[in-house]
Amino acid sequence: MSLANEALQKVKDRSAVIGVIGLGYVGLPLVREFCKAAFRVIGFDVDESKVKALETGKTYIRHLPGKEFQDLIKKKLFSPTSNMDRLKEPDAILICVPTPLDKMQEPDMSYVRGTAETIAKRLRKGQMVSLESTTYPGTTREVVQPLLDATGLKLEKDYFLAYSPEREDPGNKHFSTGTIPKVVGGIGPNSLKIAKEVYGAIVGQVVPVSSCEAAEATKIVENVYRCINIALVNELKVVFERMGIDVWEVIEAAKTKPFGFQAFYPGPGLGGHCIPIDPLYLSWKAREFGKPTRFIELAWEINTQMPEHVINRVIEALNDHGKSVKGAKVLVLGLAYKKDVDDVRESPSVELIELLQHRGAKVSYHDPFIPSGKPMREHNITNMRSVKLTPETLKDTDCVLIATDHSNVDYDMVCEHAPLVIDTRNATGGKKRPKKVVKA
């Protein structure tokens, strides 16, 4: 029996061991789904504190309860570890590591490259490696494959390589890992067959495409689409503000059309690991082929200007209330990048805090899911702690800036007791609000 057929059979009879590298917002949901499908899973992470948290039933991601993973460990279905020598054990290795931008807004492949090098040192015959990290078309073939080929093992014969983009949406109550169709591209036919079998064991629909490049491009297109449409409504927001028109009212009316329109909503900036970053991966790669990406670059420009626009609205509103931003007490509501999650990756709230501090404001924040500032690559607010949201706290501010519209915040109380409210998410919409509520 060929190694490819042997790998397929192991997946079919559930004797295959699955390895997941990166136990974060993408990796942990995969661990859970493979364990539910009766696979034994080894989870790898360089952060020893994550491993210990999972072993003791503690959670570091709000919507993924630590107790659930502790139970999987007790049942011997899941084994979290920071020992990379154990990479010899899995039959399928899924790479779920960050792909950020560097300071020059170019792709930082250090995590992907480092992980591929780590795997290569332990790669054995019969293993399938799948990259899940969002990246530019060509990464799997140009970055990962050469490192694995250098081991002397033959691709498509001794080992197998695929790309399957993550499609996680933290906090989404309507879709989960198992119900979201999974796009899969293989470096060759054997790799595609094995990858389809692996992912088909945990998701309802596998969507095979012709190559790793097509799969990589699929993920980029999804996020470019969202980035550009969000930029459009952000620009419309600024225009309609000058006209005295509420952009949220317009969008709600427009989306009653049953065809030809999909609602996107403005905000204080882009957050999360995907939309602020991924389109620039394609722009960077397109330069290699001498092709401009004007829509992407214009959208990026508009979206990155939104925090400054919000701060200008705060300054104008404070001025109208006889206050200067310097020395003003500003309470930022919401540190997470979107509602009802504890994820601060690329959160515009953090930039808003720093912009206000730079202008001399005394800034505090409240977030029911984030008790203290988390370490971030480009920002440092680890010294801040979430304050309690009470009538007294609100009365003691000069301005409340709603940056994230968490569902469990009492916005009626906020509007009643805060002297000034700047709402970037339409959290106070739907009812007639006092003049002290300013949309931004």
- What do the pLDDT scores average to? 94
Overall, the morphology is globular
| Number of domains as seen in the coordinates | 2
Counting copies of identical and different chains, the oligomeric state is: single chain
**Which H/E pattern describes the elements?**
HEHEHHEEHEHEEHEHHHHEHEHEHEE
By secondary-structure content and strand pairing, the structural class works out as: alpha/beta
The share of residues in helices is 25-40%
CATH architectural label of the largest domain = 3-Layer(aba) Sandwich
CATH class of the largest domain: Alpha Beta
According to DSSP, the number of beta strands is 13
CATH level-four homologous superfamily name of the largest domain:
NAD(P)-binding Rossmann-like Domain
Rg (C-alpha, Å): 24 Å
Q: Find the CATH topology of the largest domain.
A: Rossmann fold
Q: So how many helices?
A: 14
Strand order of the largest sheet: 3-2-1-4-5-6-7-8
Describe this structure in words.
The chain is an alpha/beta fold. The protein has 2 domains: 208 residues, Rossmann fold; 173 residues, NAD(P)-binding Rossmann-like Domain (Rossmann fold, 3-Layer(aba) Sandwich). Helix content is 39%, strand content 12%. It has 14 helices and 13 strands. It has an 8-stranded mixed beta sheet, sandwiched between helices. Strand 11, helix 14 and strand 12 form a beta-alpha-beta unit. Helix 8 crosses helix 10. The radius of gyration is 24 Å and the shape is globular. The model has no long low-confidence stretch (mean pLDDT 94).
